[in-house]
Amino acid sequence: MNTEGLSASLYKLPFILVKDGIVNEVNQQFINMTEFTCDDLLSKSIEDLFKILRAGPNINPYSICGEKDYFIFTKSLDVRMVNIEVVEERNEKLFFFKLQPGSSIDAKYPFISKFCSDNYDGVAIFSLPDITLLKANETFVSFFDEPFNKLENCIGKRVSEFVTGFEGSTSEKIWEDIVETGQTFYTDEYMFDRFERGITYWKSTITPIYEEGKLKYCVEVTKDITEQVLQRRKIEEQAEIIRLQNEKLKWQADLLNLSSEVICTWKLDGEITSWNKGAEQLYGYSSEEALGSICHELLKTKYPLDINELQLILKDNEIWRGVIEHACKDGRKLIVSTSHQIVTNDNAEKIVVEINRDITEIARAEEQIKQQKNELEEIIQGIDDAIFIYDSNKRFYLVNKAAKELYKDHEFSNFQNLRNKDPFKYYDENGNEITADNLIVSRVSRGEVVTNYKMTFKNDLETKHMSVNGRPIYDKEGNLKFIVLSCRNITKDIETQRSLEQQKKLLETIIDTMQESLYVVDRDGNYITSNKLSKERLLTVFETIEQSFNLSEIYDSNGKRLTIEELPAYSVFRGETIKNEVYHYIFNEREIDIVTSGTPIFDEQGNIRYAVISTRDISNIIQSEKALKQAQEKLLATELEKNKALEQTLEIKDEFLSLISHEFRTPLNVINTAIQAINYFCINDLPEKAKKYLDMIKLNTFRQLRLVNNLLDITRADAGRIKINKKNLDIVFITKAITESVQTYASQKEIAVEFTSAFTERVIGIDDEKYERILLNLLSNAIKFTPKGKSIIVKISLRKNNICIQVQDEGIGIPKDKKNIIFERFGQVDSSLSRQAEGTGIGLSLVKRFVEGLGGSISVKSTVGKGSTFTILLPDEVVIEEDNNEMINLMDNRLVQVTNVEFSDIYL
Ligand code: ADP
């Protein structure tokens, strides 16, 4: 190789010449530096050379970087830090090695070298970050597995190459931490289990070393403390065993005296050998009392099994657990949960350890719960509704009697079983079949609560309507425990409801076809129902009375407008009776008259719940009544007018009559006076014939006078001008005198006239003149209409507060239908008959007016062919007289004169 071009200083450095990849030349400086001989190095390949030199880290002979720090080792395995420069020319390569200042660690860190050579602790130096072993003492390498327990086999190698199982171990993690953090690692005891010899323990310090601020090396000082650790562990284990033993002893002692647990031990023959505090407390025997006694005798133990059997179980080293009965010292019975076990004690003696727990209360509570459960079950059995209780797997847990009856003794095991042989098909309210998935039990099993679900159970034989309730029951953890279903047969209810609905419809139809409008109102004035007519009349098209009231005007029959409280419905609620009241409604510009009745409907407590109001439209009737009234009023008016005219005519007639009568009477009186004068002065001078004619003139004058008097009186009476002049007179005397005055006439007709009186004297207030006219008139009629030979009786009696005067005859009588006519003016039964008796029909009507003028009354009773009785009743009372002085002499001329006049129409 031509080395002339190279600087002379370079050749002072150790170098090697490599030709065609083989070491061709080494200089002396190189030999000096590496302590190798030429033979060791020449003719080696460059790769081998670097291996011999243990060059590193990560050195590749073909790409050496002059800047980088490398290390190589001397033959005595001493490390040298170098830089390598490569000069290349054709097939030759020169490798110049430049020792770094202080490249020897020994020289650089003499204390470490010293530490190493002590060989007491394992000491090593590693390069970082590649963790290559640069220097170590024998102690250090002796830690490693063969062959790495020799220095030459591990120097210059990475730690992972010579520590067994380094990769993935905790050691690798420690090293990574050091490289990363640059912190010292220290451990007092560190376990490593990857060496072939097993678990090892280590005490280590790994200290990083910096050069120029850069982490460069690491010094590890390690001591194998495996033996010490194992020793210590052993001691610790022994200590633990001792501690545990102590603890066990203590626990046993504690256990024996735990107050809640009752522990006693007894020999196989029953003799008690230990008796803890719990036993003392529970049974009341102190341990002094108990120890030495026979356990089952002391406690009167009752076992649920034969005592020999128990012994056998225990001898088989088995624990016997059960519930037994014990008696306390005070005699109380206890229920005890127990475990019996045979153990061998320290004296190699077999004893029975009995551990008891008092469960008396629990057992009693359980018993009570059981009893309650039975009671509940009985109740469930007795319920009329069919009850099905399923467990969470839809298996029947309980079904009651009603349920069994419903399913006709179906074998209940589980829901599915029921489904397979189900006697029913199930339908919902709309008649759709319910699928198995939607049956109540399935729905409830999914957590649903079902209330009053109406469904139908159907088969060929029967149809049942049911109301079904279903509810899931959960345990404390919230898991489904039971499904409870109750089914109520509502077939009858539904049928009743249907029939009620039909009846209701029928009733509604009837109500709708009624001629009356009808509506029902509740207390708040809401319309509950109303019939068609009512709606048509727009009475109830609203929801409340108030609404209809606000749009209408309502008046009562007096025309007073009603307030809302006065409406018939509210009156009914106040307990008032509304019967056929007439109201006038103005509604929607329509006016109607309605007759209304209201009836209350009571609830069970007797309170008025509803008011039923019925109304009838009587507008037509009212209108026709009005029209009728108007027509009647019109008629009345014309009638009144007519009457007025008639009255006027009558008045004129009466006036005319009165006038005429007066005009007649004056000449008649003159004639009468003239006749009386003839009679008085010259009757004897007249021939017999003239006397006869004079009598005739006299009679006809009387007759004429009577007629004129009567006419005058009657017209006066009609004009209300009869003057009554009452005096207190003896009515018996007057009547008797008048009766006697007609005797002459009566006897001429051969009629007997009798007079009787219940009393001899009776003074009453009477107008004697009028009374005379009355009685004479009656008597003249009686004589007139009574045949010869019959008799007439005049009777006076007392009838209540009246004086009763009767004139009774045996004459022809008066027909019934004429009885009232005869008291009217010109009233005659038979004109031909009266003609025969020359009557005018004025007499009785005048009599009636006079009687009434005296404050009395007149009546007649008569039988045709048998006779008549006229009865006059006069008030039995006296009057205050106007003029007392005028004495009356009935026997004077006046009565004779009057009698003559009154009787002038009787033909004698
Ligand atoms: P007259 O002047 O015609 O008698 P009255 O008023 O006295 O009128 O009587 C009316 C009629 O009543 C008589 O015409 C007669 O028909 C009937 N009458 C009255 N008194 C009797 C009687 N006592 N018996 C039968 N009929 C009588």
UniProtKB/TrEMBL annotation:
It is an enzyme of class 2 (transferase). InterPro entries: HATPase_C_sf (IPR036890), HATPase_dom (IPR003594), His_kinase_dom (IPR005467), HisK_dim/P_dom (IPR003661), HisK_dim/P_sf (IPR036097), PAC (IPR001610), PAS (IPR000014), PAS-assoc_C (IPR000700). Residues 659-878 form the Histidine kinase domain. Residues 269-292, 372-407 form the PAS domain. SUPFAM superfamilies: ATPase domain of HSP90 chaperone/DNA topoisomerase II/histidine kinase, Homodimeric domain of signal transducing histidine kinase, PYP-like sensor domain (PAS domain). Its EC number is 2.7.13.3. CDD domains: HATPase_EvgS-ArcB-TorS-like, HisKA, PAS. Residues 227-261, 355-386, 621-649 form a coiled coil. Keywords: Coiled coil, Kinase, Phosphoprotein, Transferase, Two-component regulatory system. Residues 576-630 form the PAC domain. PROSITE patterns: HIS_KIN, PAC, PAS. The keyword Nucleus does not apply. It catalyses: ATP + protein L-histidine = ADP + protein N-phospho-L-histidine. It comes from the Bacteria. The keyword Cell inner membrane does not apply. PANTHER family: OSMOSENSING HISTIDINE PROTEIN KINASE SLN1 (PTHR43047:SF72), TWO-COMPONENT HISTIDINE PROTEIN KINASE (PTHR43047). NCBIfam families: sensory_box. This is histidine kinase. It comes from Clostridium punense. The lineage of its organism: Bacteria, Bacillati, Bacillota, Clostridia, Eubacteriales.
